[in-house]
Design brief:
Length: about 525
């Protein structure tokens, strides 16, 4: 006898005003440390190696907030979390927003977050009912992930972060014995309480992480999607409330993940409505570049981190943020039969991009509960880590590929790649096929001796192609849509090793670019996002 669980959200809407309300302080542009070369010590060797592998350079996002500013603010209050990417910090002080703006000329603007009365409800509270279910491996096989497992790719050597609401009791459950006994939990941090401990609070993160690394045979056999990954566990969610501070905490966690060298991250969290409804998002905010959470995800991706995000459980209503992020990979939920799960939030993003990106098992998905036994539950919170674990295996199999190349291969392998829709995106991916796509692209480049780079991906209006042979030979560039129709064609003479293409007339979407020069043919998936 097993139990089936449904994750319920409980929101409180009672507030009190306090001088000690948390504030988000956005700083002026000239408030960062100077001399980038002196600040790379913030990044671990793993982080630097990931950037080199992903061809990512250090930039202004990597500059920390000036320490003198933090020291000054500490005299009048408590600095909580600091974000170099947002050039901002969360702060508690008896001084009002107006008083702070008058006193400190380095503050650009202040967002005051009203303090909610604490609710007795956990917004990730689990409600169970008894049903007869047997354990199974369908959620792995549905993605054809067992193909990669059979080849020996189970996530070994991949550093995966989980950002969630808490990992209650995870360090004492038998299904997690291997990851703890082998010392593969490499980092933990609680961004709500500024502490190392994450094994209290909500059990949501425990259930989520079990979909990745859960492994055992007692009382029932269970194998997660990537049982050999290294882990970092970050608590960013205050389960008793819902405020925009949690988005800031999420960005702080992403920055820590970047600095220690994490390869990919799972975020089974989403934001739309807040306890203070006046600060809630509207659909127009979900354009991929506006919310604090989406900005953080986009910067993380630019640093070479693959970020997997749950779509949300508001179906048939819209996705939440940061699922909308242009740099994120959003996952919706399907049933065991591969059908759309009724609760899975739908797209598109407000700027018209396909969301969710792909689907995985989230209807009656298997996970490990706090009693160290197996349950089945509904939620995109399960679909996301199952997919994230699969990505870990794919990255292990193709370590030289960029985030964009891996994302595009997964989309191309999916069941609805030719005809994506708002409820299932590009469909259910086939990770064996995605691996074949990446291997084939590597073979084409290797056989032709190609060092051609095509960037940025995604792009809005312009593509740069570099590494060309400047031989006065004709270069042909053709771009096809997902129906195989030619949508762009241009012929140029190679007078330089680099050329620029204006593709501003292309709509948002994924395309196949074919470049031909002197008998050399290169194919690349490109994505357009405006």
């Amino acid at each position: 006898m097993k139990t089936i669980s449904v994750i319920l959200l409980f929101l409180c809407s009672t507030f009190f005003t306090s001088a000690q309300d948390t504030k988000i302080l956005f700083l002026k542009k000239n408030t960062k440390e100077k001399l980038l070369e002196k600040n790379t010590h913030y990044f671990s060797p793993k982080s630097i190696a990931r950037r080199e592998r992903q061809q990512v350079s250090f930039d202004n996002y990597d500059l920390p907030v000036n320490k003198q500013i933090l020291n000054s603010l500490s005299q009048d209050g408590e600095v909580l979390n600091v974000s170099r990417w947002l050039n901002a910090l969360t702060y508690r002080s008896d001084l009002s927003a107006d008083e702070l703006l008058l006193k400190y000329d380095f503050i650009d603007r202040i967002q005051v977050v009203k303090t909610p009365m604490k609710s007795n409800h956990d917004k990730f509270e689990i409600q169970t009912k008894s049903l007869d279910y047997g354990a199974g491996a369908e959620q792995v096989q549905q993605l054809n992930l067992d193909c990669l497992h059979d080849l020996g790719y189970t996530g070994s050597g991949i550093f995966l972060g989980v950002i969630d609401a808490g990992f209650n009791n995870m360090d004492s459950l038998g299904y997690f014995d291997a990851v703890f006994l082998e010392g593969r939990v490499l980092d933990t941090f609680n961004f709500v309480n500024s502490a190392q401990t994450v094994y209290d609070f909500s059990g949501h993160g425990t259930a989520v992480t079990s979909c990745i690394v859960g492994e055992g045979s007692t009382p029932d056999q269970y194998i997660g999607a990537a049982v050999d990954v290294d882990l970092a566990l970050y608590l960013t969610e205050d389960v008793s409330s819902e405020t925009e501070i949690e988005e800031f905490n999420l960005v702080a966690a992403l920055e820590r993940a970047d600095s220690i060298g994490i390869d990919l991250i799972n975020i089974s969290l989403g934001y739309f409505g807040f306890d203070d409804s006046t600060t809630s998002h509207v659909y127009a905010d979900l354009d991929g570049v506006t919310t604090i959470a989406s900005i953080g995800v986009n910067v993380a991706k630019s640093k070479g981190i693959f970020v997997v995000i749950s779509a949300g459980n508001s179906g048939p209503s819209t996705i939440s943020t940061p699922c909308d992020a242009t740099g994120g990979f959003c996952v919706g939920a399907v049933t065991d039969l591969g059908n759309y799960a009724w609760f899975s939030s739908v797209g598109p993003s407000s700027d018209g991009r396909v969301k969710p990106d792909v689907m995985a098992r989230g209807g009656d998905a298997w996970f490990v509960n706090g009693a160290d036994s197996l349950e089945q539950g509904n939620g995109t919170s399960f679909a996301s880590p199952i997919l994230c674990g699969a990505v870990a295996c794919l990255i292990q199999a193709n370590p030289s590929k960029t985030v964009d190349e891996v994302m595009n291969a997964i989309r191309e392998s999916a069941s609805l790649f030719i005809t994506p829709n708002d409820s299932m995106g590009y469909g259910i991916p086939d990770f064996c096929a995605a691996n074949d796509i990446l291997i084939a692209s590597a073979n084409i480049d290797s056989q032709n001796g190609s060092s051609i780079l095509i960037y940025p991906i995604p792009t809005s209006n312009q593509l740069i192609i570099s590494g060309l042979s400047a031989t006065q030979e004709t270069i042909s560039i053709r771009v096809y849509d997902n129906l195989g129709q030619l949508v762009f064609s241009e012929t140029k003479v190679a007078t330089d090793s680099e050329l620029s293409l204006n593709i501003s007339e292309l709509a948002n979407g994924i395309y196949n670019l074919v470049l031909t020069q002197e008998g050399l043919q290169i194919r690349r998936n490109i994505s357009v996002s405006k």
